[in-house]
Amino acid sequence: MGMLKSSLAFLVLALAFFLCFIMSTGDGSYDYFQFVQQWPPTNCRVRIKRPCSNPRPLQYFTIHGLWPSNYSNPTKPSNCNGSQFDGRKVSPQLRAKLKRSWPDVESGNDTRFWEGEWNKHGRCSEQTLNQMQYFERSQNMWRSYNITEILRNASIVPHPTQTWTYSDIVSPIKKATKRTPLLRCKQDKKTQLLHEVVFCYEYNALKQIDCNRTAGCQNQPAISFQ
Ligand code: 5GP
Question: Where is the catalytic site (predicted)?
Fold first, then answer.
């Protein structure tokens, strides 16, 4: 009897582990979205080996991607099964808008950048947003708040030497959006450069929510915006 009980307990435990494993690796399982906008001059500043194709990077925040994410590991899921990118599903009207909001600021191949983002991230939430909706929704998110303008109105403008604290930069964005964004930085020697501002959205990508400060810019050294 005791033997049967312990075998049964083992079986239940094994099944639970198996289910946990399936749920953590399974495609299309995510909790929320990260909508990531980047500051192109920072991309180009840290690309030393292959400089950006455009010698004068854009001076406004552009889209990096819309990433379905898990609270336990915000870099997952990625590279899920699902429909491969199909350029014909981006209408000429939307394409024209995305060329401004979502350019490839590194090598200038916009379509290939969109393809990479859809295939790596978009496909993981295809049950919520199909390819057309994914790009349309991202465009609408980009239009909903102009980060460049929000920061400019708070006198946070590119400057070669001035620095800001994490909360100096978050505060005006939080005031404008009523939600907490996440800041991501790139390290360039001893300088911490502002690189990305992340907005978080709930599962359906409709309602903006507060982001958790799980990763991103450090408190020290102070943040440069150049
Ligand atoms: P993720 O794959 O997580 O969406 O983003 C990481 C990759 O996106 C990095 O390899 C980064 O270089 C790339 N990335 C970010 N911005 C751009 C861009 O404007 N153009 C291209 N081609 N890649 C980009």
Answer: 64, 117, 121
- Tell me how far the alpha carbon of residue 43 lies from the centroid of ligand 1, in angstroms: 9
21 is a domain residue? no
Q: How far apart (Å, rounded) are the C-alpha atoms in residues 208 and 181?
A: 10
Q: Which pLDDT score is estimated for 16?
A: 52
Domain that holds residue 197: 30-224
Whether the predicted pLDDT of 26 surpasses 70: no
Could you read off the pLDDT of 106-153 as tens digits, one per residue?
Answer: 999 999 999 999 999 999 999 999 999 999 999 999 999 999 999 999
pLDDT digits (tens, 9 = 90+) for 43-90: 999 988 889 998 899 999 999 999 999 999 999 999 999 999 999 999
Q: Is 121 a catalytic residue?
A: yes
As a whole number of angstroms, the distance between CA 199 and CA 172 comes to 14
Residue 56 to residue 196: CA distance in whole angstroms = 19
CATH number at residue 113: 3.90.730.10
Tell me how long the chain is: 226
Residue 155 located in a structural domain? yes
Our count of domains for the chain comes to 1
Residue 205: Cβ-neighbour burial (10 angstroms; 0-12, 13-18, 19+): buried
CA of 48 to the centre of ligand 1 (A): 15
Instruction: Please provide the DSSP assignment of 144-181 as one string.
Output: H--HHHHHHHTT----SS-EE-HHHHHHHHHHHHSS--
